[in-house]
Amino acid sequence: MNYRQLGDTDLRISEVSFGTWAIGGDWGNSSDEEALRGLRRAMEEGVNFFDTADVYGGGHAEKLLSEATKGHEDDIHVATKFCRAGDIHDPATYSEEAVRRYCEDSLKRLNRERIDLYQIHCPPTEILKDGSVFGVLDKLKEEGKIRHYGVSVETVEQGMLCLNVPGVSALQVIFNLLRQTPAEELLPKAAEKGAGILVRLPLASGLLTGKFTKESTFAENDHRNFNANGEQFNVGETFAGLPFEKGVELADELRWIAEGRGDMARASMRWILDQPGVSTIIPGFKNVRQVEDNLEAASVPGYSAEESRKLSDYYRDRVKPHIRGEI
Predict the structure, then answer these.
(1) Considering only CA atoms, which of 49, 53, 103 is closest in space to residue 77?
(2) Beta strands in 154-313 (DSSP E)
(3) CA of 242: how far to CAs of 44, 158, 224, in Å?
(4) Which residues of the chain form beta strands (DSSP E)?
(5) What pLDDT is stored for residue 25 in this prediction?
(6) Nearest-angstrom CA–CA distance, 183 and 310
(7) Could you give the 3-state DSSP secondary structure of residue 95?
(8) How far, in Å, CA of 190 to CA of 163, rounded?
(9) What is the distance between the alpha carbons of residues 117 and 191, in angstroms, rounded to a whole number?
(10) How open is the CA angle 253-254-257, to the nearest 5 degrees?
(11) CA–CA separation, 225 vs 212, rounded Å?
(12) Which residues are annotated as catalytic?
């Protein structure tokens, strides 16, 4: 496993890490036993960083992480998120009283004394512009409740706003071959400011595995069903904001990247790891096999300058015009 510094923090984290949305819920049915096996397998292979949130399964993902990392709290770093258990548009959700409650609840579920990276979970832009919540996070950091804090953002604009806040140590962004815009301005600015970059949805909700057809369907409790068009939360969180059938069509045009790189998923994540400023990718998983497959991304060949230009042109000309919502 290769490790990278998370911005200017004291955290050195595995370049392939894992998110826990899928094992918490909203990606169809999952098995706790398989989830725990997957978490432990990842740690055996050198993964030392996991991302979760208090709303993943109503805190269930945090409890799974607590069980899997018991006895390794100093070696395995955990990032969690808050605010979406409340009304994200209500300033009271970001008050000191509310944030302290969210933090203490997460600490209890994680069975830890301190959260390594505490992130605001995709808040509205007006909350970031107000900025009061950052003062609350500064207090929690001073008290030792959290080690560092950051923001999971939906758009480049939000990310740029956050980078003006001295205490923001990391941004979590949607970034993949079907969502390349952050590479233009946000990633360089984050590197300049010393902020780490966590890349979520590196496979665009599975489109970049190349396994879907236009006839593919998803379970009722899978966000790829109930949020396919942004019905429940930001449309960009599902299929990178692309209409599903168009996404399948566009992903099919990328099958060439798998040549010499095992498969499309590994090739897609390799491209992200090669982008300057990226600290880690956090693909999801439900079982050991998916953990092992995702870890292979770190060992496949990178891209030539010509291939990189081809991928950039493909995004600009073929993909970007079809993305819905702000990028």
Answers:
(1) 49
(2) 168-174, 196-200, 280-281
(3) 36, 20, 11
(4) 3-5, 12-14, 18-19, 49-51, 77-82, 115-121, 146-152, 168-174, 196-200, 280-281
(5) 73
(6) 15
(7) coil
(8) 7
(9) 18
(10) 150
(11) 14
(12) 56
Q: How many residues does the chain have?
A: 327
Residue 249 identity (one-letter amino acid): E
CA–CA distance, 257 with 303 (Å, rounded to integer): 9
Q: What is the pLDDT of residues 236-274, one digit of tens each?
A: 999 999 999 999 999 999 999 999 999 999 999 999 999
For 121-155, give one letter per residue: b (16+ CB within 10 A) or e.
Answer: bbbeeebbeeeebbebbeebbeeebbbbbbbbbbb
| Maximum separation of any 2 CA atoms in the chain, in Å | 53
Question: What single-letter amino acid sits at 188?
Answer: P
Distances (CA, A) of 234 to 154, 202, 208: 8, 17, 20
All residues at 6 or more sequence positions from 16 whose CB lies less than 8 Å from its CB, including other chains:
1, 47, 269, 273, 280, 281, 283, 294, 295, 297, 298
**Which residues, given as ranges, of the chain have pLDDT below 70?**
26-27
Q: Quote the tokens at residue 152.
A: 């999971």
d(CA 220, CA 276): 38
Indicate the domain borders of the chain: 3-204+268-303
Show the beta-strand stretches assigned E in 241-295.
280-281
Global pTM reads: 0.96
Which class would CATH give 3-204+268-303? Answer: alpha beta
